[in-house]
């Protein structure tokens, strides 16, 4: 009982102090982190937020922050649940000096779109998110950086084309898309239909009901269809089960191409031998050989400041995605500082930074990330930034890159994205931005 | 109990109880919108209101009529999706949207309540699970319900009626509050009216109820319809005033269990139990999380903190249920009884 008695005043104080508990001083930039370290998707959450925090730590310790502005952060656990993510958003949004939100959850991002637009703070959904937020004319504060779901699909089809000797080689081929029965899984149904029509391949899309731990029926159907390739749009337990069931049904694993949420060590390792030869798309290579990874190991982990509990996960797919996400956030701040000054920026100023986030391959090399990711070219109306993809193959222990950097077919996708975002703008009564609005920036006070 | 109410000291006490409700309402209507922080309204009060209403709806079915249901989240989803589609396709005024959403949920509730005519207890609970899985699958499978949104996640439109738009935080809160107050009042009248005897007769002994002429069939289906209608409206509040986004995954089995716990821990067959239960299940974890964040302040891994909170919450629930199996409402009853006897002593002393 004495525990409760001790807890009671603390609870009371917490209730009264509903304001901020972590304040950014004049020279700090704050990252509110809606992380998930428990629950079914903890592998993704710990890796991604671990990498993100590791990179922020590196920038603080090695460079003293971004041009002297220290980076700070606070975590709130969401368990990947929308309402918990919204609570964390409400709790942390009054903290001064917020740079950007990075929820790593489509559901939470959807629930925050209105809020961040009102707050004028960027919301980043790296490698995922709502596809039509790519259109910066309608969504000024939302950035599905590097790769939205449509570009991912196009990148996968382009890769298959390259294996079949060019776009002509796709004609008459048969591709099965095995997708997770959830909003995330279904997002690409129309785009695969469009791609099948354009390239002339035969398409069969098969749903795996959530969570996907039983797929015998789907793979029997795949066996009947005799496809040339199977695209795996999985999530969590569905991925290793797909690989083992494919093996049992005699489908060759090197003909299975995983999407960006089926591409981690945690997806391949549980499948054991069945995963050897499995190929998956990624925007960031895995491994520890990149200079920035080496600096994180020597400057962060060797100092005992690393965020990952298991050091073997350094350089894993999710960890490296977190590091790339850190690079993108930090560079957006740096670009915005060059215009507005080396001080704590407002959310709107950071938005300007993201809308000018152009990192050439040369700049990526300077940042120690050559080979880790290719480049990014965000503009005010293209919030994805033309990220390149690469393909990696599992050898039983680790991923090995097996392709060049491949460009998705952005020109083909753009009209569909614009149709969707314009419909959203009509529904919500949003005025479509023009290039002139970009430089209207809300500064401090 | 009724004998105690006849004592002369009881009447002023009852008045005091009524006055307490009015004071709480006055604070909720006047002081909260003016002084509460954004976080208090958005993260505590709005989900609290939606969950209280859902708990109240389930309590009508489980507490009063004795029919166990594990499909509450599904009925919330029906309400939310119905409201969305009525707004989108018919552009109905707000009160009608609420009404039609409630009617749709009631109709679905009656359909899934039909097995209750043959099934009881655990068997009925399992058959209501069918509602849970079927409805979630339905909204996932057919794009029409989410207006063919590619990912199936809908962002809720702004609510408006008679020139007022409920887009600010305070207005959404006041809308939710008014809906909850009106429905709570109606439920209070209903369960203290003539229907109470039928409901409780069906709950306590169905055969005996049938023998003495209680219309068992009608009573059960009425309970299912009313309960689903109220839970449906709770779903509308949850998705339109609180989250402002709707996705099928948000109405999963966990949510159904949460609502069942609210009803049980708050106190079955009581109106205020739903509010007390929602306080414990929805608000307490948030305060705990704020409290631990404040005490530990980054000292521990965020995941460890979260798991610790779950242990504390679980332990608290067990302690409460052991101390008072009839729920928080019974604890409140005991406190008021103590106060009442104290009150009686004082008045007697003065006389």
UniProtKB/TrEMBL annotation, chain A:
SUPFAM superfamilies: Periplasmic binding protein-like I. InterPro entries: Leu-bd, Peripla_BP_I. The keyword Thylakoid does not apply. Residues 37-396 form the Leucine-binding protein domain. Keywords: Signal. Pfam families: Peripla_BP_6. The keyword Signal applies. Gene3D superfamilies: 3.40.50.2300. Coiled coil: none annotated. Residues 1-26 form the signal peptide. It comes from the Bacteria. Belongs to the leucine-binding protein family. This is Leucine-binding protein domain-containing protein.
From TrEMBL, chain B:
It is a multi-pass membrane protein. The chain crosses the membrane at residues 12-35, 41-61, 68-86, 92-114, 121-139, 145-166, 173-191, 221-240, 260-287, 307-332. The keyword Transmembrane applies. InterPro entries: ABC_transp_permease, LivM-like. Signal peptide: none annotated. Pfam families: BPD_transp_2. This is Leucine/isoleucine/valine transporter permease subunit. Keywords: Cell membrane, Membrane, Transmembrane, Transmembrane helix. It is found in: Cell membrane. GO terms for molecular function: branched-chain amino acid transmembrane transporter activity. It comes from Pseudogemmobacter humi. One of its GO terms (cellular component) is plasma membrane. Its main location: membrane.
